[in-house]
Structure formats: structure tokens, C-alpha cells
Amino acid sequence: MRLKTLGIKKIRKGLWLIWEVVIWVIWKARNACIFNNEIARWDELVEEVNVMSWRWFLGKCTGPACMFYEWC
After folding, report:
1. What does pTM read for this prediction?
2. DSSP symbols for 9-70
3. Backbone angles phi, psi at 67, to 5 degrees
């Protein structure tokens, strides 16, 4: 039972990290559209979420890290 609880906590932390990255990327894209008259492209935003969430994960990871292709 204890192992199952630990797995759920890890999954929850991972989903929370991805959620934070999504909000951050949308916020940055919004600011770029408003202040720099840039156009946000969804495919670029999704790629930025993938890369940034992997980097944030590596920054918080205490164990062995995964490769980018594994993260995607």
C-alpha cells in the first residue's frame, strides 16, 4: 500500500510541474503578443512546454535523470 501511495504522489508532482510550465509558457506568449506584437504559434508553444518541463524536471530531479526522448 505504501508503494502505491508513493507512486501516486510522484505522478501528482509530475502533473503539477507540467501544469506550471503550461501556465508559464502561455503567460510568456501572451506578453510577447501584447508588448512585442508577436504571433503565437501553437506548435511552437507545445514544443516549448516539452523542453521547459523536461528542464524543470531535471532541475528538481534527485535521482537518475531521463533523456529528452524518454520525457516526450
Report:
1. 0.80
2. HHHHHHHHHHHHHHHHHHHHHHHHHHHH-----HHHHHHHHHHHHHHHHHHH--S----HHH
3. -80, 160
Residue type (1 letter), 38: E
CA distance linking residue 25 with residue 49, whole number of Å: 7
Nearest residue to 41 (alpha-carbon basis) of 26, 51, 54: 26
So what's the pLDDT on residue 47?
93
pLDDT digits (tens, 9 = 90+) for 7-24: 788 888 889 999 999 999
How far is the C-alpha of 29 from the C-alpha of 25, rounded, in Å? 6
- Cβ atoms of 25 and 49 within 8 Å: the answer is yes
